[in-house]
Amino acid sequence: MAEVKTKERMQTLLVVEDDPAMLIALRDILENAGYVILTAENGQQALNLLTTSKPELILSDIAMPVMDGFDLLEAVRQRPSGATIPFIFLTARGTREDIFTGKSLGVDDYITKPVTSKELLSAVRARLQRADEFAMMAQLLAAKDSLRVLANAIENKRYHVERVNDYAQVIAAKLGWDDKHRDALEFGAILHDIGQVRIPEVILLKAGPLTEEELTEMRKHPEEGARMIDGIPYLAPAIPIVLHHHERWDGTGYPHRLKGEDIPIEARVLAVADTFDAMTSDRTYRNALDPSIARDEIISQTNHQFDPRMVEAFLNCWHRGEYHELILMNIGKNS
Ligand SMILES: [Fe+2]
Fold it and tell me: How far apart are the CA of 271 and the centre of ligand 1, in A?
């Protein structure tokens, strides 16, 4: 606990709010939690402040004179140093249109007033933690092993990406892929759900079925993930895998509803491996399925969710006992 406190004390947040009483209240709550607070009364003042200060998070109202929160967010995101800074809107306006505008400009979270100090602090902490994880990831991108460890940690599903990679690699071997091809698949497997760091915690950790709206939000993770690794030259081969791992052979998947062989082949392999692991792992809302039931489910999705060639390769590996071996190796790593 002491360590967390020290870290929080060193973190500087910028609060932008035109209502003086609200500004004082927010500053007090956040200062009491150990943060250093910079304040601004409108977007323009905030932008001026950003020329001399580098806060680790911005919490901003939307409706303000001179420059509103949307314009501020847009200006911040255009600055090289502002592309990844966590940005939270705190506002009485909570219409769908506002949320859509905020999201399209790259806001990380949206809190609707009135808000309790507990809600405010938990949103701020969650975003700062995610930003830390992301910054750490950026530093470690050069090393694949480090990347895998980090991807596991970020996903809150330890070993998931390792198992998905294992399951995908046996199919790739069966298909006779060369090392370069299998390497791209490995990066894709490690990073496939990395975009989930952009999905609100409340959706990621929900113990139960998601609502339509939550599903829509969740389904943004492939595009978010592809965007996150865009521009890192040696990860370029992983981008189509990250982007298309939820497409379906019959064209009803997402994000682009690609069909059949229009779906990158690595993404078609990963889809089988990811689904097999999802079914054979415990989830918050159900226990792991028996591997043979998961296998039957994969078979039943031939030509629907999955490429028949991938299912055939999967079954071939299954009959040779390769999956049993991997499952045995992974016992105890069911998280
Ligand atoms: Fe995914």
Answer: 9
